[in-house]
Amino acid sequence: MLSGSQRTGKYLISKNLDNFFIDIRELTRFTLQFFKEVFVPPYELQETIRQCYKLGYKSLFLITSTAFITGMVFTDHSRPSLASFGATSWLPSFTGVAVIKALAPLITSLICAGKIGSNIGAEIGSMKVTEQIDAMEVSAINPFKYLVVTRVLATTFMVPLLVIYSGLIGLLGSFIDVHRNDQTSFTVFMYDAFSKIGYVEILSSLIRSVFFGFTIGIIGCYKGFTTTKGTEGVGRAANSSVVTIMFLIFLEEILLVKFFNPFYYG
Amino acid sequence: MKNTKHDKVVVIKDLYKSFEDNEVLKGLGLELYKGENIIVLGRSGSGKSVLIKIIIGLLKPDSGTVEVLAEKIHELDKKELIKLRLKIGFLFQHSALYDSMTVRENVEFPLVRNMRNMSKSKINQAVEEVLDAVGLTDTIDQYPAELSGGQEKRVGIARTLILKPELILYDEPTSGLDPVTCEEINKLIMKVKERYKTSSIIITHDLACAKQTGDRILMLSEGKFLRQGNFEEVFDTDDERVTGFYNYNFIESNEN
Ligand SMILES: Nc1ncnc2c1ncn2[C@@H]1O[C@H](COP(=O)(O)OP(=O)(O)O)[C@@H](O)[C@H]1O
Ligand SMILES: [Mg+2]
Predict the structure, then answer these.
(1) What is the ipTM metric for this complex?
(2) Domain limits for position A6
């Protein structure tokens, strides 16, 4: 199976830098193994669905409240600057673009990084240090398939769904603020909010969140699988899952936005 | 055609294994015959767990040959390895029960995953049979966290029995248990041997367990088997590494 990424002994450059590159190599292998095993039967459909439900349900409350508050507060904070141009009627389309293109995918994914990523890292990490993963292996069960493939599929599928959901909740928060100040009706608000949003915008957000969801699953599992040094290591696995996922999400966001920019609306 | 001679269940020759510059096993050899229980004695850190993890293929040796049920386990491909592992039971030192599953789910897990077209009622029947064999039918719906140390070991044994193994590897089956429970586990090991006709390698530093369950005792020290034979033969010596073990054993088994 996978060897721990930490090493002692002689180093090529320095301990940290060496471990960083070893980590990248191992993570690449881990990711390739996912693509190798995901298409080979038996498919753990039941376990995948169970993970979808568990991971999605777990973050629902947090995402609902955060998305609602973000939509509302963002609208409220944007009002004065638009008002100084006498342009408060642009608020719906302005927040529509902000929520759908940027806020929903990013905020939802970052919350999932904290909530789901750390959960996967800790759960698999503790299975690793208590030899439960070895126990699967000796019972002729493929732990990678049962634990990793199912979770990565679940996050890759659920995060985009949560992004759609949080986008709608965010717009609802924004609508309540707009309605309170400008008495705009729901239909007019929604019409305006989506006036600057095309298929490309929605598709771009969805594709980005597929990447983010995949990142959350694969990093959480990788950190869990490479956990060493007992209970202390489990804490470290959870923690470094979140840090690594957040870093990668920002990196992917920068690259993917660059990629999608030429296709965006007007 | 494969070698069908099954009189030797495990044959190890000239086994070396080290981690970085920690040389753990240094030219170890071992033969386990069909229907035999052998005991591996040795101090903590002498490489007992490493040895049986190599036998089941969780760890790779640096050099040497390991034949299990007439197969060179480290040269098998994935499919062959799965097939071989179905015939081997492994009890982990700390039981390694799946803590998100109940006792029933723990025990049926290897069966459900490996025999996908087995009917639910057949599975339940098998689970009840092995839980009955280890004397634990009343905890079937409990979670591992709710079990005592002795019960955990029993569930671990039940989980290895469910696939009807020919060979069982026990890693310290009585460590951390009180003397009465130790005695019960020892009896269980003997019962399993009779009922399921298994051969076993039992790792322990509990001399009572060794005396009661072993047909032959091997003393692991400095990466090799220092002595082997029955209980009296092994300890009939002036070698300090052996007598020392005999004297320290009671202190050590209390530590664990
Ligand atoms: N996966 C591993 N990586 C590095 N060192 C290990 C590993 N497993 C065991 N060791 C080392 O091998 C030696 C023997 O360990 P082990 O077989 O667990 O001892 P015991 O006889 O108590 O079961 C110890 O020094 C241990 O630190
Ligand atoms: Mg051990």
Answers:
(1) 0.88
(2) 1-37
Domain C-terminal end among B117, B145, B164: B164
In a domain, B93, yes or no: no
Phi, psi of B27 (to 5 degrees): 80, 40
The minimum CA-CA distance between A123 and chain B, rounded to whole Å, is 10
List Cα–Cα distances, B27 to A106, B12, B14, B15, B30, in angstroms.
57, 10, 4, 5, 10
Residues A103 and A169 in one domain: yes
Q: Which amino acid is at A63?
A: I
Q: Which atom of ligand 1 is found nearest the CA of B46?
A: 21
Using a 6 Å cutoff on CB, does residue B256 contact ligand 1?
Answer: no
- The nearest CA of chain A is from the CA of B179 a distance in Å of 25
**What is the reported pLDDT for A18?**
83
**With a threshold of 0.90, does the pTM exceed it?**
no
Boundaries of domain holding B22: 1-87+167-229
Residues A61 and A182 in one domain: yes
Give the relative orientation of helices A230-260 and A199-225 as an angle to the nearest 10 degrees: 160
In a domain, B181, yes or no: yes
Helix (H, G, I), strand (E, B) or coil at A114: helix
Which residues of chain B make contact with A8, given a CB cutoff of 8 A?
A: 20
Cβ B96–A141 below 8 Å, yes or no? no
Q: pLDDT tens across B65-107, in order? A: 999 998 898 999 988 999 999 999 999 999 999 999 999 999 9
**Amino acid in the structure at residue A235:** G
**What's the structural domain count of chain A?**
2
Inside any domain, residue B61:
yes
